[in-house]
Design goal:
single chain, 285 residues, Arc Repressor Mutant, subunit A, Endonuclease, Chain A, seven-stranded mixed sheet, three-stranded antiparallel sheet, WH-like_DNA-bd_sf, transcription regulation, DNA binding, Bact_HTH_transcr_reg
Length: 285
């Protein structure tokens, strides 16, 4: 697969695909109402993954250039009307298009020769789910990175955090014990990435996990050096079962939380921020 980048690594594959299709729609090569090539045809044409094509189509949908019809395909819209809507202040679609699914970002990252991921989050559940899919692709022989380096920064669970917490009893340790168990499950799963070396699937894999005495109220993913995604955790109340009892806790919505790419000038700052926690406050798990 191609790993096209502009100078500084700012331009990503899905943007290249989306821009090419947008130019064809604006130029009339693809007229309003015309069906776009299938995902499989676009994969072959642009030499990218299916996930990259899906992300490009999603971006075009958000900008009003195309629309998807269930079971029929993707069709071009009248882009001039979409442009008028944006001029009149309807920016909702544009804002929505700016979000990126973690699964898509990780899928594209694993197409690179050298994969590097720094993650700061609460439990690593979303990251683990995304990486599992890439391990399957590696085992099937669809991709073969030469190295994978993952640094995972999670909160310590032996100190009192703001979240999770029993709504009625702040001294209840069970929510933190539950968080510790969940984190341990995902840490073990991610450490299993190193088994790819023994299987001869990836020459070099390194997984490092450190714990920091901070309550994460946002998640941050630094991917292959040039992409920084962040998203806010939304605090909510949640009912959980522990010790044969149901308790209400302050919790966060993490899985499925929207992630947004940071502007280029903030990416380096995010790396500095992550490294400052990693080197000064965090301890090995």
């Amino acid at each position: 697969m191609s790993n096209d980048r502009t100078v500084g690594g700012a331009r990503r594959e899905y943007e290249r695909v989306a821009d090419a299709l947008r130019h064809e729609i604006e130029g009339g090569a693809i007229a309003a109402g015309d069906q776009l090539p299938t995902h499989a045809e676009l994969v072959d044409r642009f030499d990218v993954s299916r996930a990259t094509v899906q992300k490009a189509i999603k971006a075009l949908e958000g900008r009003g250039y195309v629309e998807s019809a269930q079971g029929k395909g993707v069709f071009a819209r009248d882009w001039r009307k979409s442009a008028d809507a944006h001029i009149n202040g309807n920016a909702t679609a544009t804002a929505e298009a700016g979000s990126i699914e973690l699964d898509d970002a990780i899928a594209e990252a694993f197409e690179a020769d050298q994969v590097t991921i720094d993650a700061y989050c609460l439990t690593a559940e979303s990251l683990n789910a995304a990486i599992v899919q890439q391990v399957k692709r590696i085992i099937r022989g669809e991709i073969r990175p030469s190295s994978i380096h993952l640094r995972l920064l999670l909160p310590r669970t032996d100190v009192r955090l703001a979240i999770p917490r029993n709504v009625e009893d702040i001294d209840d340790e069970r929510p933190m014990q539950r968080l510790s168990s969940l984190s341990a499950i995902h840490i073990r799963a991610l450490r299993n990435l190193e088994n790819l070396v023994g299987q001869g699937a990836v020459p070099e894999v390194r997984v490092e996990v450190r714990l920091v005495p901070v309550t994460p109220l946002h998640k941050l993913y630094l991917i292959n050096g040039d992409l920084a995604l962040d998203g806010m955790y939304v605090v909510t109340d949640n009912l959980i079962n522990v010790d044969d009892a149901t308790i209400r806790i302050h919790d966060v919505l993490g899985v499925g939380a929207k992630l947004y790419p940071q502007p280029r000038e903030r990416v380096e700052l995010s790396h500095e921020w992550f490294n400052s926690l990693w080197t000064r406050l965090a301890k090995p798990a």
